[in-house]
Specification:
By secondary structure, the protein is an all-beta fold. It has one domain: Rieske Iron-sulfur Protein, CATH 2.102.10.10. Helix content is 0%, strand content 51%. It has a 4-stranded antiparallel beta sheet, with no helix packed on it. A hairpin with a 2-residue loop joins strand 4 and strand 5. It is globular. FE2/S2 (inorganic) cluster binds next to loops.
């Protein structure tokens, strides 16, 4: 744990930076949570991996611009905010601060 301006952060290394592929999503696990990691326009994003609509993993879905499309019913979320973008999803997914440093992908699970 470390202090930062926003309070106490809990940055955890969840993947190697080299695992990320521009415009794609991968799965990771940290602190018992299933995460989905995205590299979009050179920026890393992290969200929960489980869709809020049903039993599907977003890491098996499709990235389009800043959206992830669920593989099961094609609901879409904005990976920057977690907001649902179209039916049938109505509940947002949780998003986590993420960064790349020292060749690793870090997610703040605080
Ligand atoms: S399970 Fe994801 S849209 Fe239905």
């Amino acid at each position: 744990m470390q202090n930062d301006e926003a309070g106490v952060a809990d940055w955890v290394a969840v993947a190697d930076e080299s695992d990320l592929i521009e415009g794609e999503v991968i799965a990771a696990v940290a602190g018992g949570r299933e995460l989905a990691l995205y590299l979009i326009e050179g920026e890393v994003h992290a969200t929960d991996n489980k869709c809020t609509h049903g039993d599907a993993r977003l890491s098996e879905g499709f990235v389009m611009d800043h959206c992830i499309e669920c593989p099961l019913h094609q609901g879409q979320f904005d990976v920057r905010t977690g907001e649902p973008l179209c039916a049938p999803v109505t509940e947002p997914i949780r998003v986590w601060p993420a960064k790349c440093e020292q060749g690793r992908v870090w997610v703040d699970l605080a």
